[in-house]
Amino acid sequence: QLQLLESGGGLVQPGGSLRLSCVASGFTLDYYAIGWFRQAPGKEREGVSCISSSGARTNYADSVKGRFTISRDNAKNTVYLQMDSLKPEDTAAYYCAAVRRRWSVLACSVQSQDYEYWGQGTQVTVSS
Question: Residue 27's pLDDT is what?
Fold first, then answer.
């Protein structure tokens, strides 16, 4: 099996924090760039952040820049998304995705079509 499993979602008040985890099962993440995406009801899927397989490059959507931080621990086969200063508009299902390409070591993409493997998502709800 080759699977990605997200966890860490939940209900949080505006201004609060959550840390999402993406754990690979059945393969090693060492060679894969990882992206985080989100989709709210009635809206298109949005790229949130990504990290190259080496960790040398990260990218963020303007809407989360300065509030979210992506990181990876290849020894744990896990990628994290630390979300601080959460806003109601951050409410969405969050998905992680993995891709292995020639550019994956030193670059990453926040375009969903660039990713091959997807998790099933974890719900984040920001509300008072």
Answer: 87
